Amino acid sequence: MSPESEPSSSASAAPPETQPAAAAAESIVIVHNVAKRHNVGMLARSATAFGVSEMVLAGRRDFNSFGSHGATSHLKFRHFTSLPQARTYLKEERDFDICGVEITDDAVPITEHPFRRSTAFLLGNEGTGLSKRECEICDFFVYIPQYGGGTASLNVTIAASIVLHHFGVWAGFQERVREGNKFSLAEKPVKQTRRNYCHESKESVIEERKIKRENNRDVFEENETDESQNGSVLESIFST
Q: Coil, strand, or helix at residue 96?
């Protein structure tokens, strides 16, 4: 077990107190409006290799499964229209910590394994990193130490592989059985839906439509109020 992380005095989220791995710790990868959609397929390949139980897509639902080598058929995908909705699911329904993979003032080296329970990992864009809005949903941050000066950052799929492997080590995931010079593949699930489109649950679709109706109603009421005010102004003008 790693030493306890000191509480940070900065405004950013502080890493949780490190604890031994829970008996049934799980990992999830959060994908938020990924710029290069083919990265989702490659992320899926790393996710299945390192025991990820689910990939959560926030924002756009469609993605390119290129580079997954069939891995998307072994993963569960869940979609939310916004980051706050994804956070509510992860925190309130699943009791997960949310870890941002980003170099911040209080980020902890991934080698210290600063985990305490099941964790969802949010990775940033290679160029700009995590946005302010993305950082706001994170409970703590980790970064990957580099020892060479030839590059300033890693590709998102490479970074994910390193982080997920470290979590698997901490959580004590059982190593997959090997067959020759490769690992054995699980039986391929029966394909039920398109692999490059994350289908929402019935409840999620209903909630999304409800929000849209409420937003449209608010706009209609505002327009109606404006027209009423304009009418009152005209009446006062012509009555004088």
A: coil
- Pull the structure tokens for residue 34: 């990924």
Beta bridge partners of 43: none
- Positions of the chain with pLDDT lower than 50, given as ranges: 1-11, 64-70, 190, 192-195, 197, 219, 234
Cβ-in-10-Å burial (0-12, 13-18, 19+) of 216 comes to exposed
pLDDT score of 10: 41
Q: What's 70's DSSP letter?
A: T
Alpha-carbon span 81 to 15, nearest angstrom: 27
Per residue in 93-146, pLDDT tens? 999 999 999 999 999 999 999 999 999 999 877 678 899 999 999 999 999 999
DSSP string, 121-189: EEE-BTTTBS-HHHHTT-SEEEE-----SS-SS--HHHHHHHHHHHHHHHHTPPPPPEETTEEPPPPPP
pLDDT value at position 35?
56
Q: Where are the beta strands (DSSP E) in the chain?
A: 27-32, 54-58, 77-80, 97-101, 108-109, 119-123, 140-143, 178-179, 182-183
Question: Rounded to whole angstroms, how far apart are CA atoms 72 and 54?
Answer: 10
Q: What is the pLDDT of residue 189?
A: 63
Backbone angles phi, psi at 50, to 5 degrees: -110, 25
